[in-house]
Amino acid sequence: MGYLDNSTVTVEAILTKKGREVLSRGGTLNITKFALADDEVDYSLWQADHPLGTNYYGTIIENMPVLEATPDETQTMRYKLVTLPKQTTKMPLLSIGFSSIQLGKVGDTVLVQPKTRFYEADTYGYTAIVENSNYVDLQVKSTVGQSVVPLIPSFLRDDELNQSLVKVGKSFTLISKDVTAYTSTFVKTNLTIIGNDTGATMTIPVTVYRDRIRVRDMEAIS
Amino acid sequence: MAKRLTPIQAATLEAAGVPATPEQIDGTPITPAARGTSRSIQEIAADPGVTTEMKVFTPFTADDKVLNMSRRVTAGMWTGNTGSLYTFFTSSVQSASSGYWYYDIYNSAASTGEVQFALAYGHKDGGGYPVISALNTSKEPTKAIYAQYRNILLDPEDETFSFANSWDSDHIFVLNIQRSRLKQKMDAGNWELHIVSGSSPAVQKTIKLIDDSGQKFDQAVSLGGRKYNVVSGSLNVGAAATIKTTAANEPAGGMGLFYPDRGFIVLNPHALEYHLGRFISSGSATTAIANNHGKLYKMIESGSYFTARNEEIVTSAHYFVRVKNKEYNLSNNPTYYTSSDGSLNVSTFIGDPHSYITTIGLYNDSNELLAVAKVSTPLLKSFDREALIKVKLDY
Question: How far is CA A178 from CA A22, B14, B232, B305, in A?
C-alpha cells in the first residue's frame, strides 16, 4: 500500500515595502485578495515537439529554479495570470487608436478612449495613470458607473507614484499644463492604461510642447 | 438589456452547452424570443459551474484565512544562527574608546566579525578603577556600570545585587547579549558557558555555567522580567540538563543571575573566584586600572564554548490560495502572446491553455501589494488542474 499524495504546496510570504509601511503606521494588513503571476517564465521554452511527448512539453520550465521573493513591490507581479475562457485564441489587448500623444501648450486636450480588443471587457473600466502630473492633467470623460479601485501597477516606483495621477473611467481627457518653466521646448511623460477586467496594460509616451499652440500629429499605430 | 456576443463568448456558450446562433455572434441583439431556452452571459456567469468572467484577482473568503497564529520560535543565538560560539575576539578600536566600561566580544577578528555580546565589570563603590579622589579625570566606569544595571534590574529600594543564599555583592560581571542576536529574549534553559582559568592544563580550573530554569528552582519575576539562578552544570543536549551544584549550595553564593527577557547574565565575582582562583582587583584608591572584565574575557576565551539560543514569538497568518480548474490558465506574460494581435504564441495552448504559477501576491482592497510569496518550482495550471497553495506570512 502506497502513501497518499497530500501535496498541498506551502510557501512562505514576505512583506513588501508597502506591507511594512502599513504595519509601521500602526495599521493592519487586511489582506483581502490574491493574484498570481509568472514573471520569470518564458513560454517560448514550452516544447510542443519534445521527443518524449506531452508530459515533457513543459519540462524546461518546470525544472527551472525560481528566484526568491523580493520585498520591492515595484519589481514583482508584473505579469499576472488571468482567467479567460478555455477557447481563448487571443489575449486581450488595449488600444486607444494611437501609439503616442503630443500636446500643445497649456490647455490643449486629447480624448483617450481605451478599447479592449477581442473582448467586451469594460465592466470595470480602465485605470489611467499619468506618471508626471506636472505636465498634464487627467480627467474622466466617461465614468464606470460603479465604485472601482484603480489597478495601480506595482511597478511604479515610489517617486513616480508621488507625482502620478490615477483615475478610473471608460474614457479620459488629457489636458496639457503650463510647462514654460522648463528650459526645453518639450517635456515627456507616460500614460499607462490598464484594463480593470483583464489586467491588460499598455503604456504610451506623452509629449507636451512648451510653445506650440495645438499638436494633432499623433502617430497612428503601425 | 440585450447582450452582444463576441466570438470568444460564443465559444464559451457552446462550451457550456448553449449553442450560439450566427446572428448572436455577429452582434445582433439577443431577444428573449431568439434566445429560446438559452441563457444570457450574466446567467451563465452566475452559474458556479461555468466561468465566463475575466479576472486577475480572487477575493479570500473567511474560510481561506487563518489569522493571528502565535508561535514560539527559537534559533541559534550567534551570527548566522549558529548555536555555539567557540572563538572570542575583542576590538582594539572599541576597547580604546569604551573599553573601561565594557568589551564588545566578536565571533571573529573584529574587522570581519560581528558583536555577539558585551562583557562589563561593575562595582558599587567604583572599585577596579581609580575614583575621582584618586584620579581627578576619572569617569568611574565600574561605578557607572554597577549603578546602570542596578537601576534596570533591581527594585528601587534595593541597592545591592543579591545572589543565592542572600549573598550580597558589591561588584558584578555582566554578559549582555547584543540586541540583534537576542531578537526578543534568550531561551531560558538552553545556554551553557565555559570559563577556564590558569594558563596550563595542570593548573587550569573550569566551571560550566547554565541556568536552573529547566529545574524551575526559585523562579521569580523581577523588575528585569523573569529571573533564574546561574548554576554550575551541563546542558547535555538530547537529554535533561544536569545541575552540578544548586545555587543554594554554592559556598560563596549563587554563581549569578540570569534575566532571559533582557538578555543579561549577571555573574557573582565571589563565586567565580571561589571556583577559578583569585583574579579580581577591586581597589579604587590607587591609579591602577584593574581591567577585571578583561581578565574574565581571557577566561571565557580559554573556555572556548558559549552555546545559546534566542527566542521570539512570531505571529503568523495563513492564507489558502485556492485556484480552481477554470481560473488563471492564461497569462499577460509578454512571451505568452503576440503583442501586435494578441494571438497565443504556443499553438497547443489554443483550446487547452496552460500557465505557470511562480508568484503569489497578497493585496488589500486598495490593490496594494502587501506580501509576496514564491513557489519553489513553477506550478503548472490548466483547465484540468487545480491548485491549493498555503501561504504563510510571519510578521
Answer: 36, 54, 79, 71
Chain A CB contacts of B40 below 8 Å:
none
Each residue of B6-25: pLDDT tens digit?
444 444 444 433 333 333 33
Left, alpha or beta for B269 (phi > 0: left; psi -120 to 50: alpha)? alpha
Residue B214: the pLDDT is 78
Strands (E), B115-204: 115-123, 161-163, 167-169, 171-177, 185-186, 192-197
* Residues 6+ away with beta carbon under 8 Å from A2: none
Cβ contacts of A30 on chain B, cutoff 8 Å: 364-365
Confidence label for A5 from pLDDT (cuts 50, 70 and 90): low
Is the pLDDT at A167 greater than 90? The verdict is no
**How many Cβ atoms from other residues are within 10 Å of residue A26's Cβ?**
6
Q: Find the Cα–Cα–Cα–Cα dihedral B197, B202, B207, B208, rounded to 10°.
A: 120
Under 8 Å between Cβ of B129 and B100: yes
| A122-134 mean pLDDT | 86
Phi-psi region of A91 (alpha: psi -120 to 50; beta: other; left: phi over 0): beta
The answer to pTM > 0.95 is: no
A36–B4 CB contact, under 8 Å: no
Average confidence (pLDDT) over B337-347: 92
Sign of CA dihedral B18, B24, B30, B34: negative
A67 vs B: CB within 8 A: yes
CB A148 within 8 A of CB A124: yes
Give the H or E element holding residue B83. none
Contact A71 B350 (CB under 8 A): no
